[in-house]
Amino acid sequence: MADSQWTCTKTVLTIQVKRFCNNPMGWADWMQVTPTTEELFEVERSVREVNKCDDEEALKMLCSALVRQSWHQSKLLSQAVGRIGELDAKIATWD
Description:
Oligomer: single chain
Order of helices and strands: HHH
């Protein structure tokens, strides 16, 4: 069976999951964020750019956009974690 082929039977899916999870992470390891050095530099550059800005209107617009984006990402993350939990529970009941 090729890696890109998936079937919906319990046995085959369980075998696929075990084959790809030989070294499973702990229950919360996947939530740990480890940025690369380049990502850290990019964030720092962006922060410094904001700190240098004297345009109050531009800062208000940026802040408003970031509040909306934060809400959206929080909602999306909450839904994704919920779905992962559902799938994890299904797999746990197969054993």
